[in-house]
Amino acid sequence: MAKFSKKTKTEESIPTSALPDIIFMLLFFFMVTTVLREQDILVEQKIPQATQLQKLQKKTLISYIYIGKPKNTALYGSEPKVQANDVLIGAEDVVQWVNQERDLLPEADRGMITISMKVDRDVKMGPISDVQTELREADARRVLYASTGKLQK
Amino acid sequence: MGKKKNRPSQEVNAGSMADIAFLLLIFFLVTTTIASDKGILNVLPPKLDPNNPPPEIDKNERNIFNILINANDQLLIEDEFRDNADGLDAEIKAFVLNFGLPDEEATALYNTLPASLKAQVKRDPESSDSPGEAVVSIKTNRGTSYEKYLEIFDLAKKAYFDIYAERVNLTTDEYRTLTGKDDAEEALIDRGKEGIPMAISIAEPDKIGS
Lengths: 153, 210
What we know:
The complex is a heterodimer. By secondary structure, chain A is α/β, with parallel strands linked by helices. Chain A is built from five helices and eight strands; from the N terminus they run H-H-E-E-E-H-E-E-H-E-H-E-E. Chain A has helices at residues 2-5, 19-33, 73-76, 94-103, 125-137; strands spanning 49-50, 54-55, 62-68, 81-84, 87-89, 114-119, 142-146, 148-149. In chain A, strand 4 (81-84) and strand 5 form a beta hairpin. The N and C termini of chain A lie far apart (66 Å). Chain B is of the alpha/beta class. In chain B, 36% of the residues lie in helices and 15% in strands. Chain B is built from seven helices and six strands, in the order H-E-E-E-E-H-H-H-E-H-H-H-E. Chain B has helices spanning 17-31, 88-96, 104-112, 115-118, 146-167, 172-176, 183-193, and strands spanning 38-43, 64-69, 75-77, 80-82, 135-141, 200-206. Chain B has a five-stranded mixed sheet, with helices on one face. In chain B, strand 3 (75-77) and strand 4 form a beta hairpin. At the A-B interface, helix 2, strand 2, strand 6, helix 5 and strand 7 of A face helix 1, strand 1 and helix 5 of B.
């Protein structure tokens, strides 16, 4: 039956014409989710791990403060420093910074400002409590200790 | 002069399109940092007003679960020395759910608890009176590492979330991921918390020995 054997001849190459579309799809995904760093982080950031993580619903309410050992120890020394926006500040300037951040928010949300503290795991509690005292002073009392997930035992 | 033999094909060659897209893809893959806004939420106490000092609160010692962490990251839990925090979450849970001396309100609360939580009630007169009265106090030293502090704070939160979740019949993870974005979720969150406030007190760190 020669008629049938003809039909079994298969195409040998895989059609790759849809490949660019797939890649573009991935590309767009990453383009949309990516957040280009708008500021340099001047302090070390080894974020500690925890299990009881919570996600905040409104991301616009979050302001970030970074605490850790400066990366450039020749310039800033090796004691832990506080970074807000893209400068290193002393604990006494935290109040002013919080007020600036709060002014950027719509009026209705100002009471709900949340400070995400990204603290290096090697920092001691001393500088952290200094910052927290200042945050209380500024009445920005919602604090998020940024941490990454830990596998539970 | 017949017909042309080598007529160029009408289509644009799209074979290298994938390569270009790959290049861009890899660029974004490398530069991307998926923003993670996850963390442990803490609400700090209001600032101290020098003209208006906070009222002295007489709390029975049995209603406070004391955790001290010193500069060497050693623990003193309820006056007992510890090197590690294993099992602390279970202890806090037992402390909160003790119902040693419940008043009327606490008895009503006790009656709303599911059977699995009722079974954990110890009624130890040496421990907390009722969940509404129980306070977990964490006191650190200026030299305590942040990592240790967060570990203990994490465990205290876990104890409370365990109770809340068990109350509404969810797993702890499920309860924690509730964000209250619709009324049903909010009702669920409130039902878990009702009458059992998350009372974790962070004391000012000691200055000595830092």
